[in-house]
């Protein structure tokens, strides 16, 4: 299915946190089943990272993108890659003088080979046929859609240490799971305009977690399964309401 301009705009608004909860949920559901939309989603990430590095985003977009997507492990990797490419481009600028050389087109080249070396033409045609069939096969085979495991967690008083700690939610995660989508219930409704950031605590280190949705009652985060071998964990949610009274909430769980 060919994407329209509305779908492309929706993906961009989703990555910049401009959609409401219902629109976010609809996009997330479509990303699971629509390959074209998922391809656009991945391409838009790179485009926004490049715009961020170039300073093309406005201030609210830049702040939101930095505190959400670029705070995730994937976002940090793409940001670092974009900075590396930009650094290499500046160190090795393209030459100003461009020399153009007239070259035969692909089909003219094939015709020349057919006239001069018929045996080479047959070999070249075979290679082209193999490459064409391989390209078609790659396009027709749908990419593997990873499984998403969903669960709801409740908060406990934030406390980091090696002791038993508060009761933990036990998550029986299937082996074929690629990502965990965790809904963090808020102890009380959050006021409009509240901002959220999240971290994953494995009792040794902490790492940023992608916040992919929120409403007055909960916040949704997405964590790659590879970051969660069997162990005890806690998602630390930092809420910043318009009043500026920052609160830290802890959501302990065990992966089995």
Write the layout of secondary structure elements.
Blueprint: H1 5-15, H2 21-33, H3 35-54, H4 59-67, H5 73-91, H6 106-116, H7 118-140, E1 147-153, E2 169-171, E3 177-185, E4 195-201, E5 206-214, E6 218-224, E7 231-240, E8 247-255
Parallel strand pairs: 1-3, 2-8
Antiparallel strand pairs: 3-6, 4-5, 4-7, 5-6, 7-8
Helix pairs in contact: 1-3, 2-3, 3-5, 6-7
Care to describe what's here?
The protein has 256 residues and is α+β, with helices and mostly antiparallel strands. The longest helix is centred in the middle third of the chain and has 23 residues, at 118-140. The protein has helices spanning 5-15, 21-33, 35-54, 59-67, 73-91, 106-116, 118-140; strands at residues 147-153, 169-171, 177-185, 195-201, 206-214, 218-224, 231-240, 247-255. It has an 8-stranded mixed sheet with strand order 1-3-6-5-4-7-8-2. The protein is 41% helix and 24% strand.
How would you sum up this structure in a few lines?
Helices cover 41% and strands 24% of the residues. The protein is an alpha+beta fold.
Considering the chains and any ligands shown, give keywords for the structure.
256 residues, 24% strand, alpha+beta, Immunoglobulin-like, single chain, eight-stranded mixed beta sheet
Strand order of the largest sheet: 1-3-6-5-4-7-8-2
- The computed structural class is alpha+beta
Number of helices: 7
Helix and strand element order: HHHHHHHEEEEEEEE
Helix content: 40-55%
* Low-confidence runs: none
- Beta-sheet strand percentage? 15-25%
Overall 3D form: globular
Mean pLDDT: 80
Distance between the termini: 39 Å
Number of domains: 3
Write down the Rg: 25 Å
């Amino acid at each position: 299915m060919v994407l329209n301009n509305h779908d492309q705009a929706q993906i961009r608004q989703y990555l910049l946190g401009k959609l409401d909860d219902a629109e976010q949920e609809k996009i997330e559901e479509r990303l699971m089943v629509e390959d074209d939309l998922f391809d656009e989603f991945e391409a838009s990430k790179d485009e926004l990272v490049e715009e961020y590095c170039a300073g093309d985003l406005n201030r609210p977009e830049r702040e939101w993108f930095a505190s959400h997507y670029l705070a995730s492990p994937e976002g940090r990797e793409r940001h670092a890659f974009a900075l590396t490419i930009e650094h290499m481009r500046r160190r090795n600028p393209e030459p100003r003088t461009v020399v153009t050389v007239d070259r035969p087109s692909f089909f003219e080249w094939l015709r020349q080979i057919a006239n001069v070396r018929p045996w080479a033409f047959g070999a070249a045609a075979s290679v082209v046929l193999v490459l064409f069939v391989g390209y078609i096969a790659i396009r027709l085979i749908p990419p593997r859609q990873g499984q998403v495991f969903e669960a709801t967690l409740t908060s406990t008083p934030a406390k980091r240490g090696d002791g038993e700690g508060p009761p933990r939610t036990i998550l029986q995660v299937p082996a074929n799971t690629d990502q965990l989508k965790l809904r963090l219930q808020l102890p009380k409704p959050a006021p409009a305009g509240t901002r959220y950031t999240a971290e994953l605590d494995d009792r040794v280190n902490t790492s940023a977690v992608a916040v992919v949705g929120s409403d007055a009652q909960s916040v949704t985060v997405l964590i790659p399964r590879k970051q969660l071998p069997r162990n005890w964990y806690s998602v630390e949610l930092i809420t910043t309401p318009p009043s500026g009274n920052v609160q830290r909430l802890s959501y302990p769980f065990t992966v089995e």
